[in-house]
Amino acid sequence: MSEGLRERKKRQTRQHISDVATGLFLERGFDAVTIAEVAEAADVSVNTVYNYFEAKEDLFLDRSKSVVDRLSRFVRARGKGESASDAVFRELRELVEAVSPAIGLFEGYARFMEVVHGSHTLGSRLGFLQHEVLVDLDRTLREETGADEDDTLPTLVAGQLSWVHGTLMGRIAQRMLEGAEPGPASREALVLLDDMEAVLGEKVLKYAVRDA
Amino acid sequence: MSEGLRERKKRQTRQHISDVATGLFLERGFDAVTIAEVAEAADVSVNTVYNYFEAKEDLFLDRSKSVVDRLSRFVRARGKGESASDAVFRELRELVEAVSPAIGLFEGYARFMEVVHGSHTLGSRLGFLQHEVLVDLDRTLREETGADEDDTLPTLVAGQLSWVHGTLMGRIAQRMLEGAEPGPASREALVLLDDMEAVLGEKVLKYAVRDA
DNA sequence: TGAAAACTTGGAGTCATTGCAAACTTTAAG
DNA sequence: CTTAAAGTTTGCAATGACTCCAAGTTTTCA
Q: Which residue among B120, B123, B203 sits closest to A199, beta carbon to beta carbon?
């Protein structure tokens, strides 16, 4: 019994509600759409919406949550001889070169960010996600290196790498909002990555090299 | 006419409302206090509260807003031969050594952060302020250096320095929450500042040196 | 098949936030 | 000193997010 009917239905319902809501938000903006409208459009009750999502913002940022552990995944998957920083830069470059929608390199991203910036609540929530990336990576680095509880270095490295990620995403968002096409935005992003790597200190670049 | 009765009264009323609200929040937590209660305790109408503050969170974070342009002020006031980074580290060290409440080094800070962490809205807003520090500093660095519009370096330096500031504040908050006294927390913060400076790259450390 | 467990729903209630117009206060001109 | 204009405060009403609850429904499983 890998997954019962119940589980499947739940996931579908959740996805459906999120999709419908996202569509409405992109069309009319975040504040101009009420939960009641989302519920009606998704053909469920208002309470059901709240069964699946804690707050209105989660309806729009649901997908973005997979971003939180992105850097941790990169670091865990780093190759032999590769530092945490090496892995993060390498993987980010791959995403950028592939013009991946995972980092905002797709047509509709401009409108998405427009909606985000259009709402105080949503904008703040984004800053929160950013911080969660750091916390998540900090934990991962500590697990990977077995660093002492009161060693601050992993936190500092996590801060630097999540800054790289956040700055990259922010720049892409900005360029897309300015009307840039994914292709050119991708090329600019690669330069930015180079610049950021050039700005980091040795201690960060060489942290958590995988020996085995 | 430096300031009429009207202006003075407004400032007093605003301060009074903020003080009363802060008191209640510290006592009972953010969500457990309604605007109606704040209004009653401050002896004004609910609408007056909204005349002065955009949202409930602003009642609690009003003071924190002076933090946004802190780094910009440090940079603008940097001495001859001093880089932006030098100035920021120097001034932060001064605040830390002085055990200044401006960076959370006072008894009540633990409770303050407890309340902040206790509310989703409040926590997110803090991340937003953090980002504003960066944006503000970016603008200042561009003004100070006359950097070209599409030069990304000032943004990167601003990102690094606001990271230093945010990490410092975060660490102090964490230690105070863990029950540390301001004195010891101050000493630990100095070490952290050294660690962070050691982690930064040359490009950042030497940016925007004041020659004249 | 017959509950128990898990979902959905309608309805009522709390509270943040906004819009509006009446009532009040301060300012500044006469 | 009086008074109208401008700015401020307030009560009232309404919208919409979010929570609680109790009454159905559906799915699971012994």
A: B203
State how far the Cα of B88 lies from the Cα of B170, in Å rounded to an integer: 17
Residue A32 CB in 7 A reach of strand D = no
Q: What is the pTM of this model?
A: 0.94
Q: Based on the domain organization, do A131 and A164 belong to the same domain?
A: yes
How high is the pLDDT of residue B3? Answer: 57
Judgement on whether residues A79 and A125 belong to the same structural domain of the protein: yes
Q: Which domain holds residue A97?
A: 63-205
Q: Are residues A19 and A115 in the same domain?
A: no
> Is B45 inside a domain boundary?
yes
| Alpha-carbon span A17 to B162, nearest angstrom | 38
Question: A5 beta carbon < 7 A from strand D?
Answer: yes
Both A104 and A160 in one domain: the answer is yes
Nearest chain A residue to B192, by CA = A152
**A211: in domain:** no
> What digits encode the pLDDT tens for the residues B115-156?
999 999 999 999 999 999 999 999 999 999 999 999 999 999
Joined tokens for residue B170: 């975060």
pLDDT value of residue A59: 98
**Percent of chain B at pLDDT above 90?**
94
Q: Does A77 contact B at CB distance below 8 Å?
A: no
Using CB atoms, pick whichever of A171, A196, A201 lies closest to residue B199.
A201
Distances (CA, A) of A158 to A8, A53, B16, B75, B163: 36, 29, 41, 26, 11
Q: What is the widest separation between alpha-carbon atoms in chain A?
A: 56
Using alpha carbons, list the distances in angstroms from residue A92 to A70, A74, A88, A145: 10, 9, 6, 22
In this structure, the answer to whether residues B109 and B140 fall within a common structural domain is yes
Residues making up chain B, counted from first to last? 212
Please report which confidence band the pLDDT of residue B53 belongs to, taking 50, 70 and 90 as the band edges.
very high
Q: Which residues contact B179 (CB under 8 A, 6 or more apart)?
A: B110
Instruction: Please state, rounded to an integer, the average pLDDT across all residues of chain B.
Output: 96
CB contact, 8 Å: B198 with chain A? yes
Distance A47 CA to C13 C1' (A): 15
Q: Residues A129, A172: one domain?
A: yes
Distance in Å, alpha carbon of B14 to nearest chain A alpha carbon: 22
C strand bases under 7 Å from protein CB: 6-11, 14-20, 26-28
